[in-house]
Request: fold
Amino acid sequence: MADTTDFISNASSIFGGASSSKVDLALISTLVLASSSVVGTYASGLSVEKKKAELAMDLERERQRDAQLKELQSVIARYRGPLLESAIDLEQRLWHVIVDRSFEQGDDKHVDLEVLYMVFCLAQFLGFVEVVRREGPREVSFLASDNPQGSDTLFIMIEAVRFVLCASPESLMAWWGQEEQGRGARNHPGARRRREPMEIIRDKRSAAEGSYGHEGLNTSKYIPLRISRGFQRAIGTMMILTDFGASRHYTLSYGQFFERLNDEATPNWRTWFTDMRADVKYLAKASLWEGEGPFPLNDWTRVLLLQQLLVELIDLLDPDCIRITQTDRRRRLMPVEYQPLPNIERYQRNLMDIAALGSTQLGGNGGGNGGGNGGRQRLAGLADLIGDRRGSSSGSG
Reply:
């Protein structure tokens, strides 16, 4: 107000000082006040426009995050759900082959059908494992943040299954013997370290001499259900029906698999499953399992290790026990001790956050595990990570 008064006084002297009329002073005061009002209105308008621009940027950022979170949910629907279902199917068949031999009471045709269905379950599982490999870049982005090992939890789990299926008796013994030979805690089978050259030589000598630290070990023994890495990928590819990038992946149904396996017009397709079918039939007719563990090596070594890994995979993909609620359905028959999966808690938390967010978007209250603002904020950071790495990860295999 002091500045305004000074301005009016100065203006008054310009227009005649004390002799100026009151009308002139009133006019000048009105003009000054009007100018101040215009300036204030302009400044206020600038502030409003700035706030509008900031709000628009926030809304656009939120829209992009929502789109990326929906992509995460789409990734889960695309392959993690089917992988879980196929793991459950295969684990149940392995359990029945090891423990429940009731199907042996039927005739040969009944036994053959049971054997064929287990072959199908294994082939179906390999199909979705191959799908995971195709979708690898998205999965790496899903867990790359704050991962001290730079590794991916699900891929380590998948590698463990691939290793157990393809490993030679010598390789299985070398992995199992880490702890027995004072080499520290046994690595997770999907995160094995490469052995030093002298370790390899020593292991080969021990295998040849049968002196792996336990009596009765025979690394030359054939362990049923061995499938090379190349055959695993080939069979998995043959089972997939959908193209890369499909909204959801599908494999052959059991009916389609049965028809193709018995189609005389495609005998070469059948040969891919000959050894697998023979091994499953051998296990189905083998002597009863009497509680022996995977080691020392025996007919049940690979099956028992695979059953343990499948239960671990089910625990990883279904942390809330929604798909399988009964704890006894997640029982490991003869578990072998090894180091845990890296970052398993973070991985499971991300899954639960996404599931809770999905239920909130459908009208839930977000009060489940990982729901609410905390889970959404964690997933928002994850969505930003995916957006930042989308270009760099899309070219990896």
About this structure: The chain has a mean pLDDT of 76.
